[in-house]
Amino acid sequence: MILSTLSLAQFRSWPRLTLELGGRPVALHGPNGSGKTNILEALSMLAPGRGLRGVPAPEQARQGAAAGWRIRAQIGDHAVETGAPPDQGRHVIIDDKPAPQVRLGALIRVIWLTPAMDRLWTDTPETRRRFLDRVTLSFAPAHAEAALAYDKAMRERNRLLRDQVGDPHWYRALESQMAEAGAQITANRTAALNRIAAAQAQGGDAFPAARLTLLPGEGFADDPDPASIAARLAATRPRDLAAGRSLTGPHRADLGAHWGPQDMPAALSSTGEQKALLLSLILANARALADQPVLLLLDEVAAHLDAARRALLYAEITALPAQSVLTGTGPELFDTLNGEDLAVVKTDGTSRIAP
């Protein structure tokens, strides 16, 4: 057990909530609107970034940005607080000292699966990039810093492109910064996919393993060399000037997935197989982090799964070296596990949940 308690104040639908976690996986059940996903979102805020819904921090306040919200948690020996005070951005405090968000990634690795992610393989490349970067971040918390550095330099370069600045001297320093950060982004993504592939090979046969690839497109996915990336950015500058934005770079890469003996593209698979492929990836992500404290969040995880596959999923979850929190609309969705393996509790609006 790594995360022992979670306390919410004015977060989403919860004015107050205390959740006590034990060593077993926890399944939260209740009707739609009972606050299950809000609890998972609060847990996801123990990671760097905007959490599983990806919204700005002020929007998570129960009574609006003017009221603010707060989350407190005990992670191992560390007391963690994060929140958004009234009309302010998000802050992080670890052991009574202000800390950058990236420090959260060093305390616990948070992995999540939501119903919206079921469309991953048919969604936009941008959605798959965000998913890939979240996976990458679980292995390399410093990936966030490389992504921020790249985005900052790209925004400045895009401003020059929109203003139709033609002098190459204005671009060289920014393109060098984009190349250095972009090379690190590409290397981090590639390393993450290699670790996922190895972890999938260690899994059982419950869920099909996908062959994952980093697709270049205009994204330089095959080229982690900073000098080469900078040269390509310089070479594509005339086209970018015409478009008014950067059309090439790691921000244009995509995630590909194929599976089975026929190497079927995930996007052409059935809804059930797409969900199974995604679950395989999520489970492999948690398995690959066996040497790190991991919190696995699975929202409405039983959707599109029959009873047999649910049982296989729960067996995989209980075998993982990770804390897990699941949600579903009713306790019958978790009846393939007995009470010794899974703590099943109802979210009925009470302020304290102790599995």
Structural descriptors:
2 domains, globular, Rossmann fold, alpha/beta
CATH architecture of the largest domain: 3-Layer(aba) Sandwich
What's the multimeric state? single chain
Beta strand %: 15-25%
Helix content bin = 25-40%
CATH class of the largest domain: Alpha Beta
Spatial separation of the terminal alpha carbons = 13 Å
CATH superfamily of the largest domain: P-loop containing nucleotide triphosphate hydrolases
Write down the secondary-structure element order: EEEHEEEEHEHHHEHHEEHEHEEE
How would you sum up this structure, described in words?
This protein is of the alpha/beta class and 355 residues long. It folds into two domains: 1-108 and 293-355, P-loop containing nucleotide triphosphate hydrolases (Rossmann fold), CATH 3.40.50; 125-287, Up-down Bundle (Glutathione S-transferase Yfyf (Class Pi), Chain A, domain 2). The chain has nine helices and 15 strands. It has a seven-stranded mixed sheet with strand order 7-6-5-4-1-2-15. Strands 8-12-13-3-14 form a five-stranded parallel sheet, with helices on both faces. A three-stranded antiparallel sheet has the order 9-10-11. β10 and β11 form a beta hairpin. The radius of gyration is 21 Å and the shape is globular. The mean pLDDT is 90.
